[in-house]
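Troubleshooting log. The previous structure file for this entry was overwritten by mistake, so regenerating from the original sequence record. Sequence copied from the archived sheet and checked twice against the printout by T.R.
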Amino acid sequence: MAAGDAPPITDYKEQKVRNRIRALILDMDGVLWRGEEPVPGLVDFFALLHERGIRYIMATNNASKTPEQYVDQLARFGVHVPPEAVLTSAQATASFLRRQAPPGTPVYIIGEEGLRRALAEAGFVLSADGARYVVVGWDRGLTFEKLAQATLLIRAGAVFIGTNPDRTWPGERGLLPGNGAILAALEAATDTRPIIIGKPETPLFEEALARLGASPEETAMVGDRLETDILGGQRMGLFTILVLSGVARREDLEAGPARPDLVLEDLTALTAWLKG
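Regenerated output below.
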């Protein structure tokens, strides 16, 4: 075992774990694709899930896209799933806010279509006027004025919510600034820490398990980030699988915030592992 790897799993324990797993929570960026390119073995992986009757939900911290956009992206890659199989941090944020405030509550957002649509469909008014909440998601059209407006509202008492804390985003050019970078700027400007909805916090995981109708004991989390996917999965009591096709590298394991139960190179290796 290389330094920093997950502890070895005996053959007996490995088979026992495989037999127990009846549901998967799958991260998307860095696991199923990188940038706009699918990872090798994507179609075969989903074929195996359907063949074995393994339930799955694709849960992403990216709040910029709608579930339908993810469905269309997967269809271009040859994989066909319903929108209900996709859970975004934007949807989890909308569910969280519905438990906090009535429909019609003004909410100021920094974010893209996925976040705007999720909050609007939940009945919130997207406006800076009288905003009681500031919700911040990844925004490739970020401007100084958006940051300034959010800063003033938070300093005036609006609740500061972040859809996810991912510091980077894995694009085709390499790692680019993620929503965590935007949150860091606002935290510095307001002296206020945001409430985080996405991984590694519990709201997104709780909603994923509810949709799956699964218990933590029979569910595995598959992700490419130690600080969100793996840490959050462990907090929820899930079996955690790190794939090295996205952000995390093997050398990150030694000093990482969480040690995965299993480390695999990519989705092809995961397919082989599930087959046993």
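The radius of gyration is 19 Å. Archived copy saved in two places this time.
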